[in-house]
Amino acid sequence: MPLSTITGIGHYVPKNIVTNKDLMEVMETSDEWIRERSGIEERRYIDRTKETTTSLAVEASLNAIKDAGIDKNDIDFIIFATLSPDYYFPGAGVLLQRELGIAGTEIAALDIRAQCSGFVYGLATADNFIKAGTYKKILLVGAEVHSVGLDFTTRGRNVSVLFGDGAGAVIVEATEDESHAVLATSMHSDGTYAEKLAYMYPGAHGGYFLDKYAIEGFDVDYNLENTPYGGVFWNQDMLDKARIFPHMEGQAVFKMAVTKFPEVIKETLEKAGLGVEDLDMLIPHQANLRINQFVQKLMGLRDDQVHNNIQKYGNTTAATIPICLNEAYREGRIKKGDTVVLAAFGAGFTWAAAVLKW
Ligand code: ACO
Fold first, then answer.
1. How far is the CA of 272 from the centre of ligand 1 (A)?
2. Higher confidence at residue 92 or residue 242?
3. Looking at 52-66, 68-82, 233-247, which range is the least confident one?
């Protein structure tokens, strides 16, 4: 049975740097609050006149394709993890295929909607398609644009200061070489917590879920009389309560994340026949430096065994792991033969991990 391995990696972030001080110009916040709670110092935002989620993904993909030394026309499958696709539909995968100039290959393009866990879900998917013998050269991308969908008033500051834009990509190929391969993957979810971290607008839920789960005392207007078969149900009450922006119960996310990270890391190492003592480098999702420091301490890992870069980019959801992995590799923090663990936790809740020999 073939194994899968990463043969090329690249990332791309927009040039435009937005510091904590810049955000203080548009909302009541402080550099100190943001750094202390999240570790974030700055993030990147796109130039809305010429960049989108897909365009960031194109740049990251071209870097990964070049790094792998392959011809883009030889890619046989695209997996695109994002929670901020350019269109509601069609998905981001087909847009990437077109913008890369490989639509003529007619290869399949799959979108993954697993939020911050999207890239690791994508790697698990690529790994299994390769093991099944279906594909041999997969382009896997995580890319996000958050800056166009955040509430930049003081009301939304608990969420908006945390997120940034960026993209990372890898080429996953078939190999027989166990010493440079994906050894194990795990994926999990628990939908009980769906509304703890969610962006419910525009959505296709017709208001029912808002009534049932989301918001106490929320006046949902189904607008049945005026438009019996559809129509806008987002009334002023909903807009005032800001449910047209991402909503997060930060402490619930924190609690669950620090529990699930160690669990899924240990589970996946065990599947690979390894233990925490074998781990050379952990690349955790970059949601919050405090979460990662908490997990590092819980697991007894040294500073040289964990790579973080949220300070520079904020949380780029599905893009954090490939960006962080690429930086750790380029900075020489990951060497050939190292046991590398990728671990993610995000909205859904979803969580996942992968163990690879680099
Ligand atoms: N600047 C200044 N003050 C702020 C800001 C801000 N940006 N945001 C919130 N505050 C204020 C609040 O208004 C509140 O003030 P009050 O006490 O006067 O009412 C106070 O700070 C505390 O607000 P909380 O929302 O309770 O803040 P908390 O202490 O929970 O910290 C944080 C927020 C950092 C998000 C924390 O909950 C956390 O680390 N959660 C983990 C979740 C996370 O990091 N998610 C990232 C994305 S999710 C993912 O990728 C998995």
1. 37
2. 92
3. 233-247
For residue 81, give the H/E element and its range. Answer: strand 77-81
Tokens read off for 169? 């990509």
Cα gap 186→357, rounded to integer Å? 16
Full-model pTM: 0.94
Please report the pLDDT score of residue 205 as a whole number.
67
Q: Which residues of 206-233 are buried (b: 16+ CB within 10 A; e: fewer)?
A: ebebbeeebbeeeebeebeeeeeeeeeb
285 is catalytic: yes
Query: Could you confirm whether 324 is annotated as catalytic?
Result: no
C-alpha closest to that of 135 among 127, 144, 143 = 127
> Which residue's CA is minimally distant from atom 22 of ligand 1?
158
Residues lining ligand 1, judged by CB closer than 6 Å? 29-30, 33-34, 37-38, 116, 157-158, 161-162, 197, 248, 250-251, 253-254, 257, 287-288, 290, 315, 345-346
Cα distance between residue 251 and residue 273, in whole Å: 34
DSSP 91-111: -HHHHHHHHTT-GGG--EEEE
Q: What is the ipTM of this complex?
A: 0.93
CA-nearest residue for atom 46, ligand 1, is: 287
- Say which of 285, 292, 308, 326 is annotated catalytic: 285
Q: From 19, 37, 161, give the residue whose CB has the most ligand 1 atoms within 8 Å, as the site to mutate.
A: 37
Short-list 49, 70, 54, CA closest to 12: 54
CA of 157 to the centre of ligand 1 (A): 8
Closest residue by Cα to atom 5, ligand 1, is 158
